[in-house]
Protein backbone atom coordinates (compact mmCIF):
# COMPACT_ATOMS: atom_id res chain seq x y z
CA UNK A 1 0.00 0.00 0.00
CA UNK A 2 1.51 3.33 -1.09
CA UNK A 3 1.33 6.03 1.57
CA UNK A 4 3.00 8.90 -0.31
CA UNK A 5 0.43 11.05 -2.15
CA UNK A 6 3.07 12.13 -4.65
CA UNK A 7 3.74 8.54 -5.67
CA UNK A 8 0.12 7.80 -6.58
CA UNK A 9 -0.92 7.58 -10.22
CA UNK A 10 -4.10 9.12 -11.61
CA UNK A 11 -5.84 5.74 -11.46
CA UNK A 12 -4.73 5.23 -7.88
CA UNK A 13 -6.18 8.60 -6.86
CA UNK A 14 -9.43 7.78 -8.70
CA UNK A 15 -9.74 4.45 -6.91
CA UNK A 16 -8.32 5.53 -3.54
CA UNK A 17 -10.23 4.95 -0.33
CA UNK A 18 -11.33 8.55 0.19
CA UNK A 19 -11.75 7.97 3.94
CA UNK A 20 -8.01 7.53 4.39
CA UNK A 21 -6.74 10.52 6.36
CA UNK A 22 -4.55 12.80 4.26
CA UNK A 23 -1.77 14.33 6.38
CA UNK A 24 -0.35 17.69 5.27
CA UNK A 25 2.76 18.63 7.23
CA UNK A 26 3.30 22.39 7.54
CA UNK A 27 6.58 23.58 9.01
CA UNK A 28 9.10 26.39 8.57
CA UNK A 29 12.56 27.10 7.23
CA UNK A 30 14.30 29.07 9.94
CA UNK A 31 17.16 29.46 12.41
CA UNK A 32 17.45 26.75 15.05
CA UNK A 33 20.36 28.10 17.03
CA UNK A 34 24.00 27.52 16.10
CA UNK A 35 23.67 23.77 16.71
CA UNK A 36 20.85 22.68 14.33
CA UNK A 37 19.80 23.08 10.66
CA UNK A 38 17.20 25.38 9.13
CA UNK A 39 15.07 22.41 8.06
CA UNK A 40 14.49 21.12 11.61
CA UNK A 41 10.73 21.64 11.66
CA UNK A 42 10.27 19.99 8.25
CA UNK A 43 12.44 16.97 9.07
CA UNK A 44 10.69 16.42 12.40
CA UNK A 45 7.16 16.98 11.07
CA UNK A 46 7.71 14.56 8.19
CA UNK A 47 9.26 11.98 10.53
CA UNK A 48 6.04 12.04 12.55
CA UNK A 49 3.79 11.90 9.45
CA UNK A 50 5.78 9.17 7.69
CA UNK A 51 6.24 7.22 10.92
CA UNK A 52 2.48 7.21 11.42
CA UNK A 53 1.90 6.17 7.79
CA UNK A 54 4.30 3.25 8.22
CA UNK A 55 2.31 2.03 11.23
CA UNK A 56 -1.12 2.53 9.65
CA UNK A 57 -0.59 2.42 5.87
CA UNK A 58 -4.24 1.66 5.09
CA UNK A 59 -5.40 4.71 7.00
CA UNK A 60 -2.97 7.43 5.92
CA UNK A 61 -1.73 9.29 2.85
CA UNK A 62 1.11 11.77 3.34
CA UNK A 63 1.21 14.91 1.20
CA UNK A 64 4.47 16.54 0.11
CA UNK A 65 5.19 18.99 2.96
CA UNK A 66 4.81 22.75 2.99
CA UNK A 67 8.27 23.65 4.32
CA UNK A 68 7.56 27.36 4.95
CA UNK A 69 5.62 29.02 7.72
CA UNK A 70 4.60 32.14 9.63
CA UNK A 71 7.85 33.35 11.17
CA UNK A 72 8.72 36.88 10.12
CA UNK A 73 9.62 37.55 13.76
CA UNK A 74 12.67 35.30 13.19
CA UNK A 75 14.09 37.24 10.23
CA UNK A 76 16.92 38.91 12.18
CA UNK A 77 18.61 35.51 11.96
CA UNK A 78 20.19 34.46 8.63
CA UNK A 79 18.36 31.90 6.52
CA UNK A 80 14.75 32.50 7.53
CA UNK A 81 12.11 32.26 4.78
CA UNK A 82 8.87 33.79 5.99
CA UNK A 83 5.33 33.65 4.65
CA UNK A 84 2.58 36.14 5.52
CA UNK A 85 -0.11 34.40 7.58
CA UNK A 86 -2.83 35.39 5.08
CA UNK A 87 -0.78 33.88 2.25
CA UNK A 88 -0.21 30.71 4.24
CA UNK A 89 -3.91 30.30 5.05
CA UNK A 90 -4.75 30.79 1.36
CA UNK A 91 -2.06 28.38 0.22
CA UNK A 92 -3.08 25.66 2.66
CA UNK A 93 -6.78 26.01 1.87
CA UNK A 94 -5.99 25.81 -1.86
CA UNK A 95 -4.34 22.45 -1.16
CA UNK A 96 -7.25 21.23 0.97
CA UNK A 97 -9.80 22.46 -1.59
CA UNK A 98 -7.93 20.50 -4.26
CA UNK A 99 -8.02 17.37 -2.13
CA UNK A 100 -11.75 17.84 -1.48
CA UNK A 101 -12.28 18.30 -5.23
CA UNK A 102 -10.75 14.85 -5.81
CA UNK A 103 -13.06 13.33 -3.21
CA UNK A 104 -10.89 13.15 -0.09
CA UNK A 105 -12.92 14.02 2.98
CA UNK A 106 -10.59 13.65 5.97
CA UNK A 107 -7.52 15.86 6.29
CA UNK A 108 -5.06 16.38 9.13
CA UNK A 109 -2.96 19.55 9.05
CA UNK A 110 0.04 18.47 11.11
CA UNK A 111 2.00 21.41 12.45
CA UNK A 112 5.64 21.35 13.47
CA UNK A 113 6.38 25.09 13.92
CA UNK A 114 4.96 26.94 16.94
CA UNK A 115 3.73 30.12 15.27
CA UNK A 116 1.85 28.14 12.62
CA UNK A 117 -0.53 26.85 15.28
CA UNK A 118 -3.21 29.59 14.99
CA UNK A 119 -2.72 29.78 11.21
CA UNK A 120 -3.42 26.06 10.78
CA UNK A 121 -6.39 26.28 13.11
CA UNK A 122 -7.89 28.95 10.84
CA UNK A 123 -6.99 27.04 7.67
CA UNK A 124 -8.68 23.89 9.02
CA UNK A 125 -11.78 25.83 10.00
CA UNK A 126 -11.92 27.57 6.61
CA UNK A 127 -11.65 24.18 4.92
CA UNK A 128 -14.58 22.82 6.92
CA UNK A 129 -16.70 25.85 5.99
CA UNK A 130 -15.70 26.05 2.34
CA UNK A 131 -15.40 22.38 1.42
CA UNK A 132 -17.74 20.63 3.84
CA UNK A 133 -15.17 17.97 4.70
CA UNK A 134 -13.45 17.06 7.97
CA UNK A 135 -10.23 19.02 8.45
CA UNK A 136 -8.35 18.85 11.74
CA UNK A 137 -5.26 20.79 12.80
CA UNK A 138 -2.78 19.74 15.47
CA UNK A 139 0.72 20.67 16.59
CA UNK A 140 2.42 17.33 17.17
CA UNK A 141 3.93 18.17 20.57
CA UNK A 142 0.48 18.93 21.94
CA UNK A 143 -0.53 15.30 21.30
CA UNK A 144 2.11 14.05 23.75
CA UNK A 145 2.72 16.74 26.38
CA UNK A 146 2.31 14.30 29.25
CA UNK A 147 4.85 11.89 27.71
CA UNK A 148 7.28 14.75 27.01
CA UNK A 149 7.17 15.72 30.66
CA UNK A 150 7.84 12.10 31.72
CA UNK A 151 10.89 11.87 29.45
CA UNK A 152 12.40 15.34 29.59
CA UNK A 153 15.61 16.17 31.43
CA UNK A 154 15.25 19.93 31.11
CA UNK A 155 13.26 22.12 33.47
CA UNK A 156 10.12 23.94 32.28
CA UNK A 157 11.33 26.47 29.72
CA UNK A 158 13.80 23.97 28.27
CA UNK A 159 11.52 22.90 25.41
CA UNK A 160 10.48 25.78 23.19
CA UNK A 161 12.63 26.35 20.09
CA UNK A 162 15.76 24.38 19.19
CA UNK A 163 15.70 23.17 22.79
CA UNK A 164 15.84 19.67 24.28
CA UNK A 165 12.86 18.23 22.36
CA UNK A 166 13.78 19.26 18.82
CA UNK A 167 17.51 18.67 19.33
CA UNK A 168 16.93 15.18 20.73
CA UNK A 169 14.65 14.09 17.87
CA UNK A 170 16.99 15.52 15.21
CA UNK A 171 19.94 13.76 16.89
CA UNK A 172 18.02 10.48 16.70
CA UNK A 173 17.30 11.01 12.98
CA UNK A 174 20.53 12.66 11.78
CA UNK A 175 23.17 12.77 14.53
CA UNK A 176 25.77 14.17 12.13
CA UNK A 177 23.72 17.36 11.62
CA UNK A 178 23.44 18.39 15.29
CA UNK A 179 26.48 19.86 17.03
CA UNK A 180 25.81 20.13 20.76
CA UNK A 181 29.27 21.66 21.24
CA UNK A 182 27.74 24.83 19.81
CA UNK A 183 24.53 24.59 21.86
CA UNK A 184 23.77 26.85 24.78
CA UNK A 185 21.03 26.81 27.38
CA UNK A 186 18.80 29.86 26.91
CA UNK A 187 15.93 30.07 29.36
CA UNK A 188 15.53 33.82 29.33
CA UNK A 189 11.84 33.94 28.49
CA UNK A 190 8.79 33.89 30.76
CA UNK A 191 10.77 33.15 33.93
CA UNK A 192 8.43 33.23 36.89
CA UNK A 193 5.44 34.64 35.01
CA UNK A 194 1.92 33.65 35.97
CA UNK A 195 0.50 34.24 32.48
CA UNK A 196 3.25 33.67 29.92
CA UNK A 197 4.81 30.29 29.23
CA UNK A 198 6.47 29.37 25.96
CA UNK A 199 7.45 25.82 26.96
CA UNK A 200 5.81 23.46 24.46
CA UNK A 201 4.82 20.90 27.10
CA UNK A 202 3.75 23.21 29.91
CA UNK A 203 0.07 23.13 29.04
CA UNK A 204 -0.21 26.33 27.05
CA UNK A 205 0.16 30.00 27.83
CA UNK A 206 -2.87 31.80 29.30
CA UNK A 207 -1.75 35.05 27.64
CA UNK A 208 0.23 35.43 24.44
CA UNK A 209 3.04 37.70 23.36
CA UNK A 210 5.43 36.75 20.60
CA UNK A 211 8.25 39.28 20.43
CA UNK A 212 10.94 39.66 17.80
CA UNK A 213 13.05 36.55 18.35
CA UNK A 214 16.28 38.56 18.45
CA UNK A 215 14.92 40.54 21.41
CA UNK A 216 14.55 37.45 23.56
CA UNK A 217 17.29 35.07 22.42
CA UNK A 218 20.92 35.97 21.69
CA UNK A 219 21.50 32.96 19.40
CA UNK A 220 17.98 31.91 18.34
CA UNK A 221 17.70 29.10 20.89
CA UNK A 222 14.85 29.11 23.36
CA UNK A 223 15.22 26.19 25.73
CA UNK A 224 17.94 23.79 26.80
CA UNK A 225 19.45 21.73 23.98
CA UNK A 226 22.51 20.90 26.10
CA UNK A 227 20.73 17.98 27.81
CA UNK A 228 19.37 16.48 24.56
CA UNK A 229 20.26 12.90 23.64
CA UNK A 230 19.32 10.66 20.72
CA UNK A 231 17.69 7.90 22.77
CA UNK A 232 15.26 10.33 24.41
CA UNK A 233 14.67 11.75 20.93
CA UNK A 234 13.71 8.29 19.71
CA UNK A 235 11.20 7.99 22.56
CA UNK A 236 9.79 11.49 21.89
CA UNK A 237 9.33 10.58 18.23
CA UNK A 238 7.81 7.17 19.00
CA UNK A 239 5.26 8.84 21.28
CA UNK A 240 4.39 11.43 18.62
CA UNK A 241 3.99 8.74 15.94
CA UNK A 242 1.75 6.59 18.15
CA UNK A 243 -0.40 9.56 19.16
CA UNK A 244 -0.74 10.62 15.52
CA UNK A 245 -1.91 7.13 14.56
CA UNK A 246 -4.51 7.27 17.34
CA UNK A 247 -5.65 10.71 16.20
CA UNK A 248 -5.87 9.52 12.59
CA UNK A 249 -7.99 6.54 13.60
CA UNK A 250 -10.34 8.82 15.48
CA UNK A 251 -10.59 11.15 12.47
CA UNK A 252 -11.19 8.18 10.15
CA UNK A 253 -14.05 6.96 12.33
CA UNK A 254 -15.79 10.34 12.63
CA UNK A 255 -19.23 10.43 11.01
CA UNK A 256 -19.70 12.81 8.09
CA UNK A 257 -22.62 14.90 9.35
CA UNK A 258 -25.29 16.76 7.42
CA UNK A 259 -25.92 20.48 7.76
CA UNK A 260 -29.47 21.63 8.30
CA UNK A 261 -30.74 25.05 7.28
CA UNK A 262 -32.99 26.32 10.07
CA UNK A 263 -34.24 29.43 8.25
ZN1 LIG B 1 11.56 24.21 15.36
What's the gist of this structure?
The chain has 263 residues and is α/β, with parallel strands linked by helices. The protein has a single domain (5-253), classed as Rossmann fold (3-Layer(aba) Sandwich).
Secondary structure topology:
Blueprint lengths: L9 H5 L6 E6 L13 H16 L4 E3 L22 H17 L4 E6 L5 H15 L2 E6 L5 H7 L7 E3 L2 H10 L39 H4 L5 E2 L6 H24 L10
Bound molecules: zinc ion (ZN).
What does this protein look like?
This protein has one domain: 3-Layer(aba) Sandwich (Rossmann fold). The strands form two sheets. Strands 2-1-3-4 form a four-stranded parallel beta sheet, sandwiched between helices. Strands 5-6 form a two-stranded antiparallel sheet. It is an alpha/beta fold and 263 residues long. It has helices at residues 10-14, 40-55, 85-101, 117-131, 145-151, 164-173, 213-216, 230-253; strands at 21-26, 60-62, 106-111, 134-139, 159-161, 222-223. α2 crosses α6, α3 (85-101) packs parallel to α4 and α6 (164-173) packs across α8 (230-253). The longest helix is centred in the C-terminal third of the chain and has 24 residues, at 230-253. Zinc ion binds at residues 32, 40-41, 113, 161, 166.
Amino acid sequence: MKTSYGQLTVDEVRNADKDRVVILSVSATEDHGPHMPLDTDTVLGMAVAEGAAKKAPDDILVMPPIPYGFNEHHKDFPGVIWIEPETLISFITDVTKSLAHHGFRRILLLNSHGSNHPVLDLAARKTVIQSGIICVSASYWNLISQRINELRKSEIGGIAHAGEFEAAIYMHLHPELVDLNKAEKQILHNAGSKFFNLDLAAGGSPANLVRWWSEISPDGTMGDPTVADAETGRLFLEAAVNATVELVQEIRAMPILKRKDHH
